[in-house]
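Action item from last week, closing it out:
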Amino acid sequence: MAKMYGKGKTAIESEELQKRRWQIELEFVQCLSNPNYLNFLAQRGFFKDQSFINYLKYLQYWKEPDYAKYLMYPMCLYFLDLLQYEHFRREIVNSQCCKFIDDQAILQWQHYTRKRIKLIENVTAAQQQQQQLQQQQQQANGMEAATGGDSAAPTPNVNGSASTADGQQPSSALQPVQAQPGNPQQQQQQINGLASGANIKLELN
């Protein structure tokens, strides 16, 4: 079955004719974005023809996303909606009205791009600032976690026993026996005195 390129196509149309009709309708719909072209059609009485009005109603299928994505001038859809009203079709024949609409459209095109770029820049700057704040917060949390872990862990001292961060040793740690300094001659005299005392005690017994 041939692919349908538009709506309301008859079954007798070939695929080539459907494609050609789709291209013609695409070009015509986009021409509606020009107020001067609308003024041209109004002055020649097209907007008084009921068949042409029905054709404008038929073209509203271009507002659907599947078709609107092919439009290079989406403002044409706005004018297509306005053409559905008899009051607009009657007033667009006036050259002054056409000029006013044309001026407003040009101003909108001039400022729309600038506003759009500014909005994009503001959103991008806000996202970058948010990312920087998140990175700084993560770094701060990491430093706090590292500092807390170091203060809780015991540190070994020179003697090999563990001590806490305030320098106090736990009570369960074994203390090495330190030798008392002294004169070797005095130590020998003490030993001899102990030995003689022991001999005297043995003789008395």
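Closing note: The chain has two domains: 1-93, 95-148.
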